[in-house]
Amino acid sequence: MTTSHYIAGRWVEGQGSDCISVNDPALGQPFAEFMAASVDQVDQAVAAARSALPAWKTTSASERAAYLRGFAEQLGQRREALITLQMRNNGKPRHEAEIDLDDAIATFTYYAELAEQLPSKNRDVPLAVPGFSARTRLEPVGVVGLIVPWNFPLVTSAWKLAPALAAGCTVVLKPSEVTPLIEQAYGQIADALRLPAGVLNIVNGKAETGAALSSHNGLDKLSFTGSNSVGSQVMRSASAQCRPVTLELGGKSAIVVFDDCDVDQAVEWIVAGITWNAGQMCSATSRLLVQDGIADALLPRLQAALNNLRVGNPLTEEIDMGPLTSQAQWLKVASYFATAREEGLQCLVGGKALDRDGWFVSPTLYADVPKGSRLWTEEIFGPVLCARRFASEEQAIAEANDSRFGLVATVCSADLERAERVADALEVGHVWINSVQAVFVETSWGGTKGSGIGRELGPRGLSAYQSVKHVTRCLG
């Protein structure tokens, strides 16, 4: 690969100093490489977006909706290639890669529908004082920078790109250097649809490229999904320009299991919450709070379920969980296994890297983990589950909320009134009751506390890329 950057409607070679190596995590080997974009190329991408903005923001809602539906249709036409690439570059099992693609398609379809409703969003505002009229006008915020992570490429970019284009914004997208290939599909689709040059720009790179984009004074907004450490740097860069940001950051989420649950059903929800995408999710429910009355029955079955998961190469084996996506993440998770041994934690299953090619670790369960343990308080981003017991509903709520994060939670109980009550008391942005982590484009996504600022998906995802203008007129 050489022409790996899409700027002003053209594919260009990278001119930066970093070489990006793209790996197959199931083998631990590279299968593509190219040069990163330079700082000058980031400037060119922002300039192209700025140049394209006046025409794009005045296109009709129906025109923008047609482009968004075109993205959805074109993603579907590339289905098998994109699924295979997710499996190869991310290590996702096929069924997960299929859901990722369906999610991206649904996102573009949904925002196409919202785009068509935009004219109705301009409304008159009744005033208490006579002699004046007022109306509200929603406008695109302008040129936006989108920085997306490696754990859900294609999906996270769709969550940002679709509402931004629907609102009438132009964009510069920076994919993760770990998984840069699949977002190239968006540039290919832009070409196929004859999207006006500069409306969508894609620059690939490492920290230098990300810093150049996040600090660029040509942006009107920045939307970032990733780690808290990088998110704080992004926020500092934005603060220098007093620029609005959306930050979707980390989590250390709880799954609360009450003793009236069906044990086998609870095990299914717990396993899904910690092993989907090999636990590499900001929403992973990695803190298991299990009520005393069910703990002795549940933990052995959970141990057996994790031990029986098929872990392997998604391209060559029937699997339930693939490898970690990068060597850096593999080393990080391995360091937490070492910490667990140092802390003397009780490991019921796993707790080790697997002795095979690639970046594999075993699904892991620690029991009776102290609240002061690093494994209980820190985001690991791997299939590592820590369990504690609780006695009462009040204790469960207090321990679930005792975190600097506040992204998601899951509540499992046959008593639906109690489940709803607990859901209302949890300090998070999204709660599931008796469910796997089903995410629907019509809802919202984002967290409280250290898990970020703002919301994605749903109508709020569109409003994140709109500015509000009031027009007041004297009638005299």
From TrEMBL:
Domain Aldehyde dehydrogenase: 11-471
Catalytic residues in the record: 248
InterPro entries: Ald_DH/histidinol_DH, Ald_DH_C, Ald_DH_CS_GLU, Ald_DH_N, Aldehyde_DH_dom
Highest taxon of source: Bacteria
Alphabetic keyword roster: Oxidoreductase
Single GO MF descriptor: oxidoreductase activity, acting on the aldehyde or oxo group of donors, NAD or NADP as acceptor
Pfam family, one: Aldedh
Family membership noted in the UniProt record: Belongs to the aldehyde dehydrogenase family.
Stated name of the protein: Betaine-aldehyde dehydrogenase
Organism this protein belongs to: Pseudomonas putida
